[in-house]
Amino acid sequence: MPIEIERKFLITGDAWRADVARSETMLQGYLAGPPAARCSVRVRVAGESAFLNIKAAAPGVVRDEFEYAIPLADARAMLAKLAGDVVEKRRHHVEFDSHVFEIDEFSGSNAGLIVAELELDTVEAAFPRPAWLGREVSNLSRYYNLNLAMHPYSQWSVAERNADDAP
User: Which of 37, 98, 142, 160 is deepest in the core (most CB within 10 A)?
Assistant: First the structure.
């Protein structure tokens, strides 16, 4: 069964921008998800590609994940007709010490939030910590895209932005 092992971090400063290898605009909307299901079903448009993604609704760094390429026209129709709130972001790919960090710079109702994601082969895998890598938020479900769609960053209180525990 495919799994995703992903660590999430807030970003400090703009030093990472100098090392961006490529970027793409992404739109993603959720077709189904918690609390009625034990997974989220997402459609994502990334540049000129589109994907259907099914991910376990469990918090933490390890989750079951299935992803399939779908026709771009189908994805755009699903976003327009079936998805709830859409998460908008620009994903920047930054290589650092042979690891690729995916840095999501959110826009729309999540503007101001920048999160780095790093996929690893094992939970215990060592990884570099560049100076711009801030506080880890891997276990804080409010930073998951599904939750950002339902409760955008622009609506967070100061306490939510600074809290170290899940809401």
Answer: 142
21 inside domain = yes
Q: Which residues contact 21 (CB under 8 A, 6 or more apart)?
A: 93, 94, 95
Domain count, the chain: 1
Identify the helix (H) or strand (E) that includes residue 9: strand 3-11
What pLDDT does 85 receive?
A: 87
Q: How far apart are CA 152 and CA 31, in angstroms?
A: 17
Of the listed 30, 143, 144, 153, which one is catalytic? 30
- Give the type of residue at 116: A
Residue 14 neighbours by CB distance under 10 Å: 9
Q: Which of 108, 105, 94, 93 is nearest to 29 (CA)?
A: 108
- The CA distances from residue 144 to 77, 120, 166, in Å, are 24, 17, 11
Q: How confident is the model at residue 165 (pLDDT cuts 50, 70, 90)?
A: low
What CATH number should be reported for the domain holding residue 104?
A: 2.40.320.10
Residue 139 has pLDDT above 70, yes or no: yes
Q: Is 153 a catalytic residue?
A: no
Domain enclosing residue 61, as ranges: 3-162
Residue reference for tokens 């939750």: 147
